[in-house]
Structure to design on (203 residues):
C-alpha cells in the first residue's frame, strides 16, 4: 500500500484531484494534526450491478424501520463515524479531515445517507461523488441494520443516477456479504479513468 506525506496545505480542490488520481487521505489517529495519502495496491469496490442483499435484510428494508434521508446531517454523520467504539477503539478521522469533507459537502461533492428513528440519527454513511464515481468513506450504526439499510439506499440511488463506480477503498468481511471485491490497482485505475471522463453526476 503506497503512502505519501501530506502537502503543506490541503484544500478541497487538492482533495478532489487526489480522488481523481486514485488517492484518499487518512490520519494516524484522531489526535494527529496531519494526514497522509493512501493508494492501495489492492482496491476494494462494490460492482453496482452485482450488489447483493440477503433475504433477511431485504425483508427488513421493506419494513422501513427507519426514515432514510440524504444530506440533512452531514457533519453529524461524520462525527458519529469518528467516535471511538468498542469494536473501533481508534479512528483515522481527525479535525482536518472533518473540516475538509464538510467543505466538500457545502460544495456539493460530499454526501451522507442517514437513518433516523424519529428525531434520533441512528446510522449513516458518507462519501464523495466525482464524475460517475462514488467513494465511500465510513459508516456507523447505533441500531440494528441501520448502516446496512443506508448502504442499500445508497446503491439504489447510485444506480438511478447513472453512477458506474462504487469505491470502498478496502474490503471487509462485512462488505463482502454485499458483493465487495478486491481489484488490482491497475485494473481499478482503468475503471476510475472511465468514471472521471464523465461529467459530475448529481447525487
Amino acid at each position: 500500500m503506497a503512502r505519501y506525506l501530506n502537502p503543506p496545505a490541503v484544500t478541497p480542490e487538492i482533495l478532489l484531484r487526489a480522488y481523481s488520481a486514485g488517492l484518499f487521505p487518512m490520519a494516524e489517529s484522531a489526535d494527529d494534526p496531519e494526514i497522509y495519502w493512501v493508494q492501495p495496491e489492492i482496491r476494494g469496490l462494490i460492482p453496482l450491478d452485482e450488489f447483493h442483499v440477503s433475504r433477511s435484510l431485504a425483508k427488513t428494508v421493506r419494513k422501513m424501520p427507519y426514515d432514510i434521508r440524504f444530506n440533512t446531517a452531514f457533519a453529524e454523520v461524520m462525527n458519529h463515524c469518528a467516535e471511538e467504539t468498542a469494536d473501533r477503539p481508534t479512528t483515522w478521522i481527525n479535525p482536518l479531515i472533518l473540516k475538509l469533507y464538510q467543505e466538500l459537502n457545502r460544495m456539493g461533492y460530499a454526501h451522507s445517507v442517514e437513518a433516523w428513528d424519529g428525531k434520533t440519527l441512528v446510522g449513516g454513511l458518507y462519501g464523495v461523488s466525482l464524475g460517475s464515481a462514488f467513494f465511500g468513506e465510513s459508516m456507523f450504526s447505533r441500531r440494528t441494520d441501520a448502516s446496512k439499510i443506508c448502504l442499500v439506499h445508497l446503491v439504489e440511488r447510485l444506480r438511478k443516477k447513472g453512477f458506474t463506480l462504487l469505491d470502498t477503498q478496502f474490503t471487509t468481511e462485512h462488505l463482502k456479504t454485499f458483493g465487495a471485491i478486491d481489484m488490482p490497482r491497475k485494473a481499478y485505475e482503468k475503471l476510475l479513468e472511465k468514471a472521471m471522463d464523465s461529467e459530475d453526476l448529481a447525487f
